[in-house]
Amino acid sequence: MARQPLQQLPEQRVNLTPTVTATPSSTTVCNGSNVTLNGGGAFSYSWSGGISNNTPFTPPSTNNYTVIGTAANGCTAQAVAAVNVNPIPAPTLSSNSPVCSNLTINLSSSSIAGASYQWSGPAGFTAGAQNPNIPGSTTANAGVYTASVTALGCTGIATVAVLVNTTPTASAISGGSITCASPTQTFTGSGVTTYTWSGPGIVSGGNTSSPTINAAGAYTLVGTTSGCNSAPFVIGMFSNTVAPSETITASSASVCPGNASTLTVSGAYTYSWSTGSTS
């Protein structure tokens, strides 16, 4: 029997599946920051969510992104890139403004878990505490304070304005002493906007700059300007209302008609006789 010739089969080619990689430019970013996803190991790439390969985008939240890579031979494979999105801290700042000079400024921030705090402000102020304070404040400490709050590698910034009012200085002068001829006197205060007087003999005007006084003693003025109280100012009122003790002597206790007798008085400063004489 004759041997049949061998039939040649068509050549069979096996295409290899690509080994696809998915690499983010950063695996963890702060909210609002850009990320670039890079596919590797294939000829073309198609990312989930409509993202373009090697093109920056802003991820809205933590997510896994899948890329399908296609080799030149048409075979495909896929890989996954994970991107974590951390929130930016949003601190709320407050203070005890307005503050009177020489008192303490209290600054505070809302508490954020795991956060660090860095404050800056007028007059070279810096602090690393969540709730710092500034004792003995002056008007140089007035202005805007900034807190940078960092958590999970992300930093949020907030500001708070502080007003420092000057603590006023009250003073006063007296209109004179209380005497028999002038049974009342006045003080005249200055240096403040509102007045509060205290003392033993305030007749009227205790909440004005010029109260009327009818008794000797120590009087205290406390004034207020822009909500700040002055230190107490103490002033004295003096009195001289003791009636004189007069002594009259005659050169002769009895005289004949036509003769004279001299009357001498002592114990006072000025004299007025019933006859009209002043000596």
What does this structure look like?
With 279 residues, this protein is mostly beta strands. 0% of the residues lie in helices and 44% in strands. It has no helices and 27 strands. It has strands at residues 21-24, 28-30, 37-40, 44-47, 63-70, 76-86, 93-95, 99-100, 105-109, 116-121, 125-127, 133-134, 143-151, 154-162, 164-165, 171-174, 178-179, 185-190, 194-198, 202-204, 212-213, 217-225, 228-229, 233-237, 239-240, 247-250, 263-266. The strands form 9 sheets. It has a 4-stranded mixed beta sheet with strand order 2-6-5-4, with no helix packed on it. The radius of gyration is 48 Å and the shape is rod-shaped. The mean pLDDT is 91.
In brief, what are we looking at here?
By secondary structure, the chain is mainly β. The chain is 0% helix and 44% strand.
Topology summary:
Layout: E1 21-24, E2 28-30, E3 37-40, E4 44-47, E5 63-70, E6 76-86, E7 93-95, E8 99-100, E9 105-109, E10 116-121, E11 125-127, E12 133-134, E13 143-151, E14 154-162, E15 164-165, E16 171-174, E17 178-179, E18 185-190, E19 194-198, E20 202-204, E21 212-213, E22 217-225, E23 228-229, E24 233-237, E25 239-240, E26 247-250, E27 263-266
Parallel strand pairs: 2-6, 8-15, 17-25
Antiparallel strand pairs: 1-3, 4-5, 5-6, 7-9, 9-12, 10-11, 10-13, 13-14, 16-18, 18-21, 19-22, 20-21, 22-23, 22-24, 26-27
